[in-house]
Amino acid sequence: GMQVLHAEDCSNVVQREGETVLALAQFENWLFAAGTDDVAVWDVTSLTRTGELKGHSGWVNSLTLDKPRRRLFTGADDGTVRIWDLDTLECTRVLKGDSGPVLAVAVSAC
Question: Distance of alpha carbon 43 from its chain centroid, rounded?
Answer without folding.
Answer: 13
